[in-house]
Amino acid sequence: MREETSLSVLISIAVILAPLSIASVGGATAIYAPLQHEVVDLRQWISGREFLDLFAICRFTPGPSSLLGALIAFKVAGILG
To answer: pTM for this structure?
Structure first.
């Protein structure tokens, strides 16, 4: 399996989140299932358990619900994420 660079991962995350953010007009809860499908099932960047842990942190932390995208980017691409 080919190792992805941080920059290519960040570009991939932006490509994933851009259309999902348009679909989340009613709130970020609309994108959780497609986001999980993309990063856990298709790309296998994180496990299902890691996704649930990041989701719990996102819900516990004050601020926008879209923080989940930033947490996934940090988990996958490191500090640049």
So the answer is: 0.82
Dihedral (CA of 30, 32, 35, 41) sign: negative
Q: What is the pLDDT of residue 3?
A: 61
Contact 34, 42 (CB under 8 A): no
Residues 6+ apart with CB under 8 A from 30: 23, 24
* DSSP string across 33-49: HHHHIIIIIIS-SS-HH
- How many CB atoms sit inside 10 A of residue 18's CB? 9
Percentage of the chain lying above the pLDDT 90 cut: 27
Amino acid identity of residue 18, one-letter, is A
